[in-house]
Amino acid sequence: MxxxxxxxxxxxxxxxxxxxxxxDVEKTEDKVYGEGVTGEELILVSELMATPDEYIxxxxxxxxTAVGVCAHRGCWINIAxxxxxxxxxxxxxxxVIVFPPEIMGDTIIAEGVWTANELTMEQTxxxxxxxxxxxxxxxxxxxxxxxxxLYQISGTGAVVVSE
Amino acid sequence: xxxxxxxxxxxxxxxGFLAVGLTLVYAISGIAVNHAHHWDANYERTLxxxxxxAPGIGPTAEIEPVVMERLALTEPVKSTWRAGEAEFQVFLxxxxxxxxxxxGEVVRHGFAKRTLFFDVNFMHLNSGxxxxxxxxxxxxxxxIVMAVSGIFLVRGRKGLTGRGGVLMALGFxxxxxxxxxxxxxx
Lengths: 163, 186
Known about the structure:
The structure holds two protein chains of two kinds.
Chain A lengths: L1 H21 L9 E3 L10 H6 L8 E11 L6 E5 L6 E5 L15 E12 L2 H15 L13 E13 L2
Chain B lengths: L1 H33 L8 E9 L8 H12 L5 E6 L4 E6 L2 E6 L4 E9 L3 H8 L7 H20 L11 H22 L2
Antiparallel strand pairs in B: 1-5, 2-3, 3-4, 4-5
Helix pairs in contact in B: 1-3, 1-4
């Protein structure tokens, strides 16, 4: 029976070692998130935001500084536009890609599908209220008269670019 | 049956010892991330507020050196960003600074990885993907073998046909009931 135990432990150690070596090296060490980026062609964030409907459903790649990150689950980042004050959100599936807070201030290239989410009036008001609270401004419900469309990149991957 | 039970005992014992470390990783992290709405299980966060002489609102190229001079930072700056007319952000390693250009109010955010918790959560949530995916799969397989072999360790009234069986039924019933109730209640 002692031999059985020795064999069992040896097999398991081999399995663990094999499992560790079977797949690629940990991706976060290379500062590659998710599937990374698959092409080189970039689009300016300002261009994307100026004519958002033109790109719906298309795969896009943007480059810029990460200026916001989801503090709870790391499930989104905001990338700064080439136009001052403007940002674009890259939303990833919860748990599939996790952006750490350390990413803030890094230059990122992110890739994904450009999507548009039509909000209801109720949702629009909630977004406006949250934005007003964030900016320390008074929220005036009556001033919200049209439904909002939220554009974002459904991210599949990103890389940190060293400059 | 005797040989089978002997095999079960060997598997259960050996795997049990091997699984102690990994089980603690998953159990500790499980409790930690279960309460993610109460605390940040991965990072310790700090917030400091102070005021500098208001740099004023003007073109970024002119304002940036003024802000940096008034902040008098000693650590390297990763990058900066003019987030809005009166909002200026400075990004540092391990944190960042928000400056209100109009009022001079400054909020400094800091974060640091929590000792132990960051690492166990990283493993539990499989944030690094490979190679942990493979290790976690093997561990999952070990738990299955341990659970099944555990059923046959004890005979008699404390075993499967007695108290052990009742406890095992309870262990099945709890998740089944929860699944039924949670599905029913949406």
